[in-house]
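$ ./design --mode recover --in tokens.txt
reading tokens...
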């Protein structure tokens, strides 16, 4: 009987330690940080840990999806016009190190066989200023300063930012690309061209450079 009681107390103690460890990890986001306003109405991604409070290099956060650590960050918003019909705003760009929870390993094996990895993440807003629906991809290709090339098919967030956007409307969300190389200082983004609903060319795409 004493042995059973001892085992129960040990289990409670270990559970409490695990909970405290998770609180400690989450606390490594700065106490002064607040969630940026552009995340309003954003629905958290089911595959990637929440990074909204991570704003400084070295901060990390752990939740049931895994653990994120900031390696580089750029928080200045920049808006780019793609012709006269699309406005693309890059609200923030980060290089993050991610250790996915074991339950997500099968999902990430589609992209990499590493158990943990770095990825480039951008939060973007896409505004169609025209009076007709348009087709557009904010990142058709992305090339890093280490000459690593990714395409829209490599995006891990899968938040349906590519494709048709209705007239006078806005899409926003995250795009993320797993990288094999470390020490990423900058990326060059090539947007898609802009097409109408008949797949006719409306505007040519643009090339955008983002530095961390």
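writing sequence...
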């Amino acid at each position: 009987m004493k042995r059973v009681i001892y085992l129960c107390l040990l289990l409670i103690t270990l559970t409490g330690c695990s909970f405290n460890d998770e609180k400690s990890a989450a606390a490594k986001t700065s106490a002064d940080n607040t969630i940026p306003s552009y995340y309003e109405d954003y629905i958290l991604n089911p595959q990637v840990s929440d990074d909204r409070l991570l704003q400084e290099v070295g901060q990390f956060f752990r939740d049931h999806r895994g653990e994120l650590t900031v390696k580089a960050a750029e928080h200045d918003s920049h808006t780019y016009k793609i012709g006269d019909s699309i406005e693309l705003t890059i609200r923030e760009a980060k290089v993050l190190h991610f250790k996915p929870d074991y339950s997500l390993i099968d999902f990430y094996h589609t992209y990499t066989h590493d158990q943990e990895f770095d990825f480039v993440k951008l939060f973007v807003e896409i505004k169609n200023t025209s009076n007709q629906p348009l087709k557009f991809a904010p990142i058709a290709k992305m090339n890093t300063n280490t000459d690593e090339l990714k395409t829209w098919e490599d995006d891990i967030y899968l938040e349906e930012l590519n494709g048709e956007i209705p007239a006078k409307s806005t899409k926003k969300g995250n795009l993320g690309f797993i990288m094999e190389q470390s020490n990423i200082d900058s990326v060059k983004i090539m947007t898609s061209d802009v097409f109408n609903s008949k797949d006719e060319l409306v505007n040519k795409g643009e090339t955008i450079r983002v530095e961390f």
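exit 0
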